[in-house]
Amino acid sequence: MSIPAFGLGTFRLQGQVVIDSVSTGLELGYRAIDTAQIYENEAEVGEAIAASGIAREELFITSKIWVANFAKDRLIDSLRESLRKLQTDYLDLTLIHWPSPEDQVPVAEFMGALLEAKRLGLTRQIGVSNFTVDLMKQAIAAVGAENIATNQIELHPYLQNRKVVEFAQSQGIRITSYMTLAYGEVLKDPVIQQIANRLQSTPAQVTLAWAMQSGYAVIPSSTKRANLASNLKACAMTLSDADMALIATLERGHRLTSPKGIAPHWD
Q1: What is the largest CA-CA distance in the chain?
Q2: Which helix (H) or strand (E) holds 76?
Q3: pLDDT tens digits along 113-127
Q4: Assign residue 15 a region: left if phi > 0, alpha if psi is -120 to 50, beta otherwise?
Q5: Which of 43, 165, 178, 209 has its CA 20 to 30 A from that of 8?
Q6: Does the pLDDT value for residue 1 go beyond 70?
Q7: Of the listed 30, 39, 158, 178, which one is catalytic?
Q8: Per-residue pLDDT tens for 202-228?
Q9: Neighbours of 42 (CB within 10 A)
Q10: Parallel, antiparallel, or unpaired for β 91-96 and 150-154?
Q11: Is it the case that residue 78 has pLDDT exceeding 80?
Q12: Is-catalytic flag, 39?
């Protein structure tokens, strides 16, 4: 099973806000939804999905196991709780959200538990998020690269994360880009604006198209119907080699997410 190139993120969206975002997204044609235990919105996401009437097999639902649930005697129970909230019998993709702080739970333990969840049919695919090259190597040693569908990482024109990308791709592990628009910072970039003006598109569409054309999956979020509809149009865009090369020059190692006590030593 491949990971959809384009999906809907729900980070920081809660209550009626996330219900409305997911409902609108599904109405517009989104079929991949990304959530996480720590977002505290799985129940609302599940409510919106159930109300949509869309058949489960048409959807691709991703959630992420929080660090408090990594121990092998907790991980599967926590996943079953996520399934209950999401009103589904299985996830299409379950990720380890962040590496275990100070390696409290070894990579082999939580990856082994996650693989067991896959064997039990609770999730179709498994993967990781915010993993460095070293952590990916540990995960591969534990369960094999063939069982790691993706590494979901912060990746945008200002943080292109090339070392992690190159290693993941060499192992056949897909990259999922989160924060692809860098909280809107890259939308003000003159290079991206210039490309957007020439293509009669938006800076967001250009940025999302760049990520997808680079081989990454993207999961942008929005609470506005117009933006949800506009972002979706990035799927139909093709940037020239020259445009792709221009955006490649924007790399500046500008990391926006690195929570204290949880973030690893970045590559």
Answers
A1: 55
A2: helix 75-86
A3: 999 999 999 999 999
A4: left
A5: 165
A6: no
A7: 39
A8: 999 999 999 999 999 999 999 999 999
A9: 23
A10: unpaired
A11: yes
A12: yes
DSSP conformation class of 57: G
The mean pLDDT value for 78-105 works out to 97
Q: Which two tokens stand for residue 9?
A: 């993120």
Q: Which two tokens stand for residue 189?
A: 């970039």
| Sheet with 123-129, side-by-side order of all strands | 8-9, 32-34, 60-65, 91-96, 123-129, 150-154, 174-178, 217-218
Q: How far from 67 is each of 111, 114, 140, 262, 267, CA to CA, in Å?
A: 12, 13, 19, 9, 21
The per-residue pLDDT for range 49-68, each reduced to its tens digit, is 999 999 999 999 999 999 99
How many CA atoms, within 13 angstroms, populate the side-chain half-sphere of residue 77?
Answer: 7
User: In 3-state terms, what secondary structure has residue 37?
Assistant: helix
pLDDT at 86 over 80: yes
Residue-averaged pLDDT of the chain? 98
Secondary structure of 166-203 in HEC code, one letter for each residue? HHHHHCCCEEEEECCCHHHHHHHCHHHHHHHHHHCCCH
Structure tokens at 221: 């979020």
Residue 86, both tokens:
């999401």
Helix, strand, coil percentages (3-state) for the chain, rounded to 5, are 50, 15, 35
Angstrom distance (rounded) from CA 97 to CA 66: 6
Question: Per the structure block, which two tokens stand in for 237?
Answer: 């865009």
Res. 28: pLDDT tops 80: yes
Q: For tokens 């534990």, what's the residue?
A: 142
